[in-house]
Amino acid sequence: MYLNTIQNVMKTIGICGAGAMGSSIATACLQADFSVFLYDSSDRARIQGQSFIRGAFTRLVEKKKLSQTAAEAALKRLRNCAALKELADCDIVIEAIIEDKSAKAELFEKLSAILRPDALIASNTSSFSINELAQSVVNPARFLGLHFFNPAHIMQLIEMIPSRRTTQAFIEVATEFVGVLEKLTFLAQDTPGFVVNRVARNFYLEAMRLAEEKAASISQIDALMRSAGFKLGPFELMDVIGLDVNYAVTLSVWEQFFHEPRFAPAQMQREYINAGLLGKKSGMGFYDYSQEKE
Ligand SMILES: NC(=O)c1ccc[n+]([C@@H]2O[C@H](COP(=O)([O-])OP(=O)(O)OC[C@H]3O[C@@H](n4cnc5c(N)ncnc54)[C@H](O)[C@@H]3O)[C@@H](O)[C@H]2O)c1
Questions:
Q1: Pocket of ligand 1 contains residue 25 by CB under 6 Å
Q2: How far apart are CA 18 and CA 21, in angstroms?
Q3: How remote is the CA of residue 100 from the centroid of ligand 1, in Å?
Q4: Predicted confidence (pLDDT) per residue in 173-186, tens digit
Q5: 96 C-alpha vs ligand 1 centroid, how far in Å?
Q6: Is the CB of 99 under 6 A from ligand 1?
Q7: How much of the chain, in percent, has pLDDT values that exceed 90?
Q8: Can you list the domains of the chain with their CATH numbers?
Q9: How far does the centroid of ligand 1 lie from the alpha carbon of residue 245, in Å?
Q10: CA distance 281 to 294
Q11: What is the model's pLDDT at position 129?
Q12: What was the pLDDT predicted at 6?
């Protein structure tokens, strides 16, 4: 079968960033039989990432979606990398570090120096221009956006965003890869926030403006939106995403739309971040998760 070809030829996936997205993307790749080299510049993040991945496989076994033997085999294919150069032989590298344009550009320059020129490089950015990020990649024909959703091992959708310089051959490699992961792909244009994050801006921003106006409380807004059919309310969802990540995306989309007022950040975003209330990952955001076990 053709889809097996990519697994036979391209076996090793490098992932940069072991935070919420890097760890869940790693889980998805391990489940699809790939070997994963997971790199993060922070020791703490790598340890937390490993523990997230182990927890995800334990739950898969508990839910009888995977045998204990298969879970153990998957975990053996995971390599924890403290140095970027350990990713040198990877066939595909997915960047999932902090939403900071210059940090990403610096990483792509370093990756370009160590990877084979035909290794596919994908960014999981939520909002930055793929055309602009591509400028930091040597041989940008092999670079595109693969925007996974949180958590990546559970959510089905991936937005695929080629730049103007991505070639069809690499779009095909990426399509096959996403197919092996058994995800659904939408081929998106390189517009600020792509499709989902652009639409979702108002979901978050209007909710925060309503709360700031005291038109309704945070928990009331969430409860109303759930009653209206949304799976999570806007504040619950921001707590899952991370308030820092969501704020970085808000700023990026606002800037790319030349500071259009409809995309302007809400004051409460900065207030919560300044207080270290980042959502589930910090134990508290709009809600308190300090009593929840991992
Ligand atoms: N959180 C979400 O819901 C979500 C969804 C889709 C896409 N994204 C995107 O995925 C990316 C990662 O988001 P996240 O939520 O996982 O963030 P996170 O804060 O959970 O993790 C980011 C990780 O990057 C690491 N890092 C920072 N700079 C680095 C560098 N130079 N080299 C190596 N590692 C570095 C940090 O140590 C941290 O572990 C961002 O671009 C974000 O916009 C996030």
A1: no
A2: 7
A3: 9
A4: 999 999 999 999 99
A5: 5
A6: yes
A7: 95
A8: 2-187 (3.40.50.720), 201-281 (1.10.1040.50)
A9: 8
A10: 10
A11: 97
A12: 63
Asked if 194 and 147 count as a contact pair (C-beta separation under 8 A), the reply is: yes
At residue 1, the pLDDT reads 34
Tell me, using a 6 A CB cutoff, whether residue 45 lines ligand 1: yes
**Paired tokens of 290:** 């300090």
State the helix-helix crossing angle for 218-227 and 234-241, rounded to 10 degrees: 100
- Rounded Cα distance between 43 and 222, Å, is 35
Half-sphere exposure (Cβ direction) of 202: Cα atoms closer than 13 Å? 5
Close Cβ partners of 173 (under 8 Å, ≥ 6 residues apart): 6, 10, 92, 120
Residue for token pair 């040198």: 88
d(CA 10, CA 24): 20
Average pLDDT over residues 46-60: 97
Question: 227 CA distance to ligand 1 centroid (A)?
Answer: 31
Pocket flag, ligand 1, residue 31 (CB < 6 Å)? no
* pLDDT score of 120: 96
